Amino acid sequence: SQELEQSPQSLIVQEGKNLTINCTSSKTLYGLYWYKQKYGEGLIFLMMLQKGGEEKSHEKITAKLDEKKQQSSLHITASQPSHAGIYLCGAGGGSNYKLTFGKGTLLTVNP
Amino acid sequence: NAGVTQTPKFQVLKTGQSMTLQCAQDMNHEYMSWYRQDPGMGLRLIHYSVGAGITDQGEVPNGYNVSRSTTEDFPLRLLSAAPSQTSVYFCASSSWPKRYEQYFGPGTRLTVT
Q1: Among A36, A47, B34, B64, which one is most buried in terms of CB atoms within 10 A?
Q2: Closest partner CB to A48 (pick from B33, B43, B100)
Q3: Taking Cα atoms as reference points, which of B16, B30, B6, B19 lies closest to residue B99?
């Protein structure tokens, strides 16, 4: 079965700083999905990456997919307190609907 | 649209009691699933359904039952609660072709004493 490892497990940054979260897969990635979870709430879909080298941005969050390395990175520029939460990567594949998730990265942004 | 709704938000059970966690979606999504989230374990899939009348087991199905009689509802039943089932439970739904862009409910925090 596919496993996703996220690093770091937790991250504390000062407001305005840049940061990167990584997600590495044990198997070939056919699609990588980033979600965000605020404390006490459900997950919210951020973006999807499907092709090697693909890069997508949403506001100040940019995600890239390195298919050869079976890895994706999520970069936040000029972090804000609103970016705080848990970021989870998920991988799908094949003809089913099942997503496998990493354990998440807890981001704290201090004002 | 209300999206995905879950009830109750909080629940405390005693060992051996049974209960049903409710999940409903109003987006006409064919796919619905239940996850549990535990510290250090991440999100783990319990059961899922690809349409009314069709359900299947996920990664951690033991101790849980599901049924899908309508497109909208996907209840999760705990048959005989155990302390190991203390967790936060999330329901999610999606639709083809964006099947991996899943909509999550707000969660049910369950404590079994």
Answers
A1: B34
A2: B100
A3: B30
Q: Which of A44, A90, A103 sits opposite B100 (nearest CB)?
A: A90
- B110 DSSP 8-state letter: E
Position A62 pLDDT exceeds 90: yes
pLDDT at residue A42, rounded to an integer = 93
Indicate the residue of B41, B45, B90 with minimum beta-carbon distance to A98.
Answer: B45
Q: Is the pLDDT assigned to residue A95 strictly greater than 80?
A: no
pLDDT band at A94 (very low <50, low <70, confident <90, very high): low
Q: Measured between alpha carbons, how far is B23 from B21 in angstroms, rounded to an integer?
A: 7
Percent of chain B with pLDDT over 70: 100
DSSP B73: B
Asked whether the beta carbons of residue A97 and residue B48 sit closer than 8 angstroms, the reply is: yes
Tell whether B54 lies on the interface with A, counting CB pairs under 8 A.
no
**pLDDT digit string (tens) for B60-102?**
999 999 999 999 999 999 999 999 999 999 999 999 888 899 9
The answer to whether A24 and A37 are in contact (CB under 8 A) is no
**Residues A45, B101: C-beta atoms closer than 8 Å:** yes
Which residue is associated with the tokens 């973006």? A47
Residue of A nearest to B97 (CA): A97
A43·B45 Cβ contact <8 A? no
